[in-house]
Amino acid sequence: MDTDMQTRLLAAVDDRFDDQIAFLSELTAHPSTRGNEQSAQDFMAVELAERGMDVDRWQIDVAVIRDMPGFSPVIGDYEDAVNVVGTHWSASRNGRSLILNGHIDVVPEGPLEMWDSPPFAPRVEQGWMYGRGAGDMKAGLASNLFALDALRTCGFAPAADVFFQSVVEEECTGNGALACMQRGYRAEAALIPEPFAEQLVTAQLGVIWFQVHLKGLPTHVAYAGSGSNAIEAAIPLIAALHEMEARWNAPACRHADYTHHDHALNLNIGKIEGGDWASSVPAWCVFDVRMGVFPGQDIAAAKAEIEDVLRQAARDNAFLRNNTPEIVYHGFHAEGYALSQDKSAAAKGAIGALEGAHRRVSGTDLDKAAITATTDARFFGLYADTPALVYGPRAEAIHGFNERVDLDSMRRVTQATALFIADWCGLEPAG
Questions:
Q1: Measured between alpha carbons, how far is 91 from 75 in angstroms, rounded to an integer?
Q2: Which of 29, 238, 379, 414 would give a disulfide with 143, using CB separation of 3.0 to 4.6 Å?
Q3: Tens digits of per-residue pLDDT, 103-152?
Q4: Domains of the chain (ranges plus CATH)?
Q5: Catalytic residue of the set 109, 170, 335, 423
Q6: What is the largest CA-CA distance in the chain?
Q7: What angle (nearest 5°) sits at the alpha carbon of residue 20, between those of residues 15 and 22?
């Protein structure tokens, strides 16, 4: 791709950037928390169809993905869990195919009074857009779409098939991306613009979600000593899990990409419920746990150790010794993934193309980082032999109050993505 074409693509992103901001604002206004993504997906389907893509919109069926590698267990059904994929079919197919993946689901907004402005009424202030999901990761979806628009503005289209994926379930299982694989969508590389500040993610952790269910012995609080408090029984179990967390983070246990990270694996007690009445000793308690795992760490072995730790801690408790905690897996069942370990020609080529695109836009070399979160990249890298590049804009307070995305960063990522697509896929005349 010559310098003139690069310059034209960068200018095309600039010329439509106000439209891109307006698109992001409208998309962020859809409160697409888990189970409520339908209106946002309707919006995406219309936008893709208006651009001439072949749109596939379907409801995820757990039964058809349950036995696939990477499936995460769920509680309840997937009623109204809808994926949307827009396909650009190349006329020449002279280039390399590409998946542009992003998730439409967002985490719950939390107490509204803790936000400076309503989370689903996006606002722009001093170069930032505020709103739940603006950063994680609707700005990424916008950058994918408007990068393709830039090519079209210049009179070109990718010279290879491109699959634009807007998926659900990334925040709790990843089963949306898995359903795309089951549907048959494959390509020679994938790009996922998650908000990691214009860095290429070289490695990501895996995640296990589980619940611990405890039963107590209820009595009137006046006779509390004769009962067994299910909420208090959780305390030593949580302490035992944190001891396990420390062992897993020990230097001898670390993956090569995390050698210098003292505490990459985080255990989080994300939710706890229990009891029915302040004057009754609680008869039940449930707490939800999120635990990270390193790339290459076996999920089955990790689960076995978690279960053993909880059983041993229960044996040390007079009541729990005869009332074994029940463990329920109810979400993420995700392996870690390290792009750094992919030595294939495809990975080398895709990384090189992104490095060149980033350098052309920013004037700096592409920074690389191992992150302590997980993304949908694992599905492509581990189960489809497809290098998955995670590279997106700078955002702050994701999953927190006053989430925001840096709009200039989104512009740069859009420009770099346009250059990457042109290099990786090649170009052919539009239409």
A1: 43
A2: 414
A3: 999 999 999 999 999 999 999 999 999 999 999 999 999 999 999 999 99
A4: 3-204+337-429 (3.40.630.10), 206-334 (3.30.70.360)
A5: 170
A6: 83
A7: 120
Given phi > 0 = left and psi -120 to 50 = alpha, else beta, which region is 119?
Answer: alpha
Going by pLDDT thresholds of 50, 70 and 90, the confidence category of residue 187 is very high
d(CA 255, CA 372): 12
DSSP letter for each residue of 253-274:
G--GGGTT-TT---EEEEEEEE
In the prediction, which pLDDT does 382 show? 97
- Is residue 170 annotated as part of the catalytic site, yes or no? yes
Token representation of residue 423: 């290099």
Crossing angle of helices 38-50 and 17-28, rounded to 10°: 150
Active site residue 105: yes
What six digits make up the tokens of 205?
A: 């952790």
Active-site residue among 47, 56, 105, 149? 105
Give the C-alpha separation, 373 to 422, whole Å.
30
Residue 372 and residue 261 in contact, taking contact as beta carbons nearer than 8 Å: yes
pLDDT tier at 223 (50, 70, 90 boundaries)? very low
Question: Which residues lie closer than 8 Å to 323 by C-beta, 6 or more apart?
Answer: 214, 215, 228, 314
